[in-house]
Amino acid sequence: MVNNKIEIGGLNVFYDGVHALKDLDLKVREKEILGVIGPANSGKTSFLRCVNRLNDLHDNFKMAGKIMLDGKSIHEIDIHLLRKRIGIVFALPLPLPLSVFDNIAYGPRTHGVKERTKLLEIAESSLRAAALWDEVKDRLETSAFKLSGGQQQRLCIARTLAVGPDVILYDEPCSALDPISTLKIEEAMRSLKENYTQVLVTNNVKQAARVADRTAFFLMGEMIEIDETSRLFTAPADKRTEDYITGRFG
Amino acid sequence: MIDSKLKEKAAFAILLAATIIVIAPVALILAIILINGLPALSFEFLFSIPRDGMRGGGIFPALVGTFYLIVGTALFAIPFGILAAIYLNEYAQRNRLTRAIELAIINLSGVPSIVYGLFGLSLFVEFLGFGASILAGSLTLAIMTLPVIITATREALSAVPRSFREVSFSLGASRWQTVRGVVLPNAIPGILTGTILGLSRAAGETAPILFTVAAFYLPKLPTSVYDQAMALPYHIYVLSTQVPNVSVKVQYGTVLVLVGMIFILNIVASYIRSYFRKKKTW
């Protein structure tokens, strides 16, 4: 019995009148890693930012369709609670101009956690889960900008984990990182599988092949196909998918 | 080849000459004020009341009056200016109304200061019945300074990367938590700098205080906000045009004190700016 964590039905997205996402139907299963691949402007990021309603910050954004989290429409969930439950890791490492510790503590403080011992506990467990604890445990009070790019991105994952989400969205999280840092992020994702549902939007086809359980291929605002990663990469149903993953375009 | 070298030299010469022509008058003014004003400066000059029909004695009441006006202006203009800027920049939706408000604010900073003076006279002095008083003068100066503070604050807020806000929102923070948590802490240096520069401009204005607070001659310190007060800019005007036979020393000494006050405020502003720029990590 497969539980669907997120169900999307008939989703259409417009920015300034541009039709960015067309009739998307997609289910994200509980505790899977769903890879989303596709060339630039294929609607991958638009899809991601609909799920935690970050698109609502965009002035000329319009959407139609249904997005359900655990069977409940995301528009019926308090927006702050929704974003607490659905975390996102952005393309560039975006630490806040604070110390390592304060970066992690930012979210929990926002949600009312005040005691330092509690915050330290959260910091340690999230940093461990993001595979960063051993590297930063002695410099929690230094500026987050002093960390390397790969460490900063894992700090961002830890910061997302600190508010206790059940879903983590990744928006091309390794596009600014070197291969070794990329591997560390991927390892972190695999170990997070136990407790979290993860959606990984990536420009890097091989990355989806390495970590995703299922993979979806987006092209010009449409989802062309979605399948088990092993099948999508060995026997894609659509010619366009095959062309893309074999590097004939994109 | 020779032609382009020649043009280069000509361009350099013209640009340099233009710069010197621009700087020379400022340097000259400062030099004249310093040479003529320095001999007047003394403890007694700064801290005693004017005597002999303002031809002798000191400028203490004017100094205190200007200080009170700066404080009063700051009390009214800083909170309202900063809060309005936060609203306009972080909360207000982009629509025709907000654009009209923005345009109005830009235009307000171009309104001549005598217009503010007359506005203050009719609204605060007469209509609200504050009389010519520190309260009326401060409010008038505050209204004149508001556009400057709002514009500077908005610039400082806009300079904080959008991505910081997105990170904060994505963690479930509310708009106010985002403003408090990531926007304001990173905008404070710019806000402070702009605010101090706005206040220093207000400190040197004569027209807005002419009808609203400034006393011609008042040899005692004000005791309440409803009192009139002497103020440095107006005192300078009086010394140079209204009182016969004032020594050049006293005139320039007073000018030097006002210029010095504004200079100090500007130094503080640029110190804050450079201090935070060094600390800035993004």
TrEMBL record, chain A:
InterPro entries: AAA+_ATPase, ABC_transporter-like_ATP-bd, ABC_transporter-like_CS, P-loop_NTPase, PstB-like. This is Phosphate ABC transporter ATP-binding protein. Keywords: ATP-binding, Nucleotide-binding, Transport. CDD domains: ABC_PstB_phosphate_transporter (cd03260). One of its GO terms (molecular function) is ATP binding. It comes from the Bacteria. Pfam families: ABC_tran (PF00005). GO terms for biological process: phosphate ion transmembrane transport. One of its GO terms (cellular component) is membrane. It comes from candidate division WOR-1 bacterium RIFOXYC12_FULL_54_18. SMART domains: AAA (SM00382). Coiled coil: none annotated.
UniProtKB/TrEMBL annotation, chain B:
It holds the Pfam family BPD_transp_1. It is a multi-pass membrane protein. It is found in: Cell membrane. It comes from the Bacteria. The chain crosses the membrane at residues 12-38, 58-88, 100-121, 127-152, 250-272. GO terms for cellular component: plasma membrane. SUPFAM superfamilies: MetI-like. Residues 63-273 form the ABC transmembrane type-1 domain. Its main location: membrane. GO terms for biological process: phosphate ion transmembrane transport. Belongs to the binding-protein-dependent transport system permease family. CysTW subfamily. This is Phosphate transport system permease protein PstA.
